[in-house]
Amino acid sequence: MQHILVTGGLGFIGVSLLKHLSRDKSVFIHNIDNLSLGVTHFEELVPAAGQARIKTYVDDINNQDLVSSLIRDNDIRQVYHLAAESHVDRSISGPRAFYESNVMGTLSMVEACRDHIEQTGIDDFRFLHVSTDEVFGDLGPEDPPFSEESSYHPSSPYSASKAASDFIIKSWHRTFGFPGMVTNCSNNFGPGQNAEKLIPTIINSLAENRRIPIYGTGQNIRDWLFVDTHVAYLEAVMAIGKLGQSYLIGGDMELTNLDLVKQIHRLFNTRRPDQAKDFEEVFDFVTDRKGHDRRYAIDTTALKSRFTDVQGIAFDTALRDTVDFYLKARD
Ligand code: NAD
Asked: Is the CB of residue 187 less than 8 Å from the CB of residue 199?
């Protein structure tokens, strides 16, 4: 059995990662998650056979003794680090928890791994830190998309905390030869995302005949990445990514928030014709978020040329499956 450590495996992306990793019968997964968000779709989305090869520790990644003993006792060589406070709006109303989990938590993880590597002398350890494209700030309408050369300009307490955690990985690689890699991805979507996020909010508002709240004028642009495609890239980076490198993972699907609402509204009308309404009746513009980034976009040329085996899932199919997941959850 190969033992792998995952952090944040009960979160949205973490559950998809556990679903993928646990397909391999020769792998056993240790998952640390403090359940800071409470609800999780782990039971629904990870098949029972896979669940049998996953052990979850409901604990904090700042518990360095736990991390150290898990790595030592199970001879762990691969760590996928996803645990983080991840909701931008919550980082504006209460930033401190973001620095405890995202910055100090990453430091605790990295130090526990570094101690182990130094004590055992193992040379095939790999640590993958999952981060966001929000660390690069935002783009104007005509700017070229983010690439591996983009510089850091975080604009929210959340993105600043993720930027700090990226710098831990990069500087530990330079100073200590720490075997870390960073991925920066765009907005994920898919089944099992927390109900506060934009796509579940749109679907649930339509289903409940409530108007969808859209920040500002709905012209903010996001690039949408299907969570299972993202996870397929994470596995590829873990397998063949170069230590010390950052990889940008995008979905090649730039949409204004208003266009995204339009697409989901159209899908919803085909699924629930009895509740169909005109587009103008389904949304309200609401006061914009403080410091709201205008546009994120990722140049995926380098990613696609390096990881040619990864097969992405088409956006239309992924969005349809996502709408169906949330509607079925309500039945
Ligand atoms: P999520 O909030 O759904 O899940 C994060 C998980 O981490 C939760 O289950 C939470 O309980 C756990 N956690 C938080 N602090 C912890 C701590 N101190 N100790 C142990 N567990 C802790 O987030 P997600 O959307 O699944 O994102 C996963 C990672 O991907 C995060 O690092 C996030 O910054 C990054 N990311 C997400 C997106 C996205 O669109 N969802 C985009 C870019 C990057």
From this structure: no
The total of other beta-carbon atoms located within 10 Å of residue 210's CB is 12
- Asked if 281 and 198 count as a contact pair (C-beta separation under 8 A), the reply is no
For 92-97, the CB contacts below 8 A with 24+ separation are: 92/156, 92/157, 92/289, 92/290, 92/291, 95/157, 95/161, 97/36
SS3 per-residue string spanning 163-199: HHHHHHHHHHHHHHCCCEEEEEECEEECCCCCCCCHH
Q: Give yes or no: 158 in active site.
A: yes
Tokens of 272: 């629930």
Q: Is the CB of 12 under 6 A from ligand 1?
A: yes
Per-residue pLDDT tens digits for 242-256? 999 999 999 999 999
Interacting residues of 76 by C-beta distance below 8 A, sequence separation 6+ = 3, 4, 5, 30, 70
Looking at 60, 85, 133, 138, which residue is catalytic?
Answer: 133
What CA–CA distance (Å, rounded) separates 286 from 264?
19
CB of 190 closer than 6 A to ligand 1?
no
Cβ neighbours around 242 below 10 Å, total: 10
Q: Does the beta carbon of 185 sit less than 6 angstroms from any atom of ligand 1?
A: yes
> What is the model's pTM?
0.96
298 DSSP 8-state letter: B
Given a cut of 90, is residue 153 above it in pLDDT?
yes
118, 70 contact by CB (below 8 A): no
Q: Is the C-beta atom of 248 inside 6 A of ligand 1?
A: no
d(CA 181, CA 245): 5
- Name the residue at shortest CA distance from atom 4 of ligand 1: 11
Q: Does the pLDDT value for residue 40 go beyond 90?
A: no
Q: Which residue has the tokens 């996928």?
A: 80
| pLDDT above 90: residue 289 | no
pLDDT at 93: 92
pLDDT for position 258? 95
| CA 109 / ligand 1 centre spacing (Å) | 15
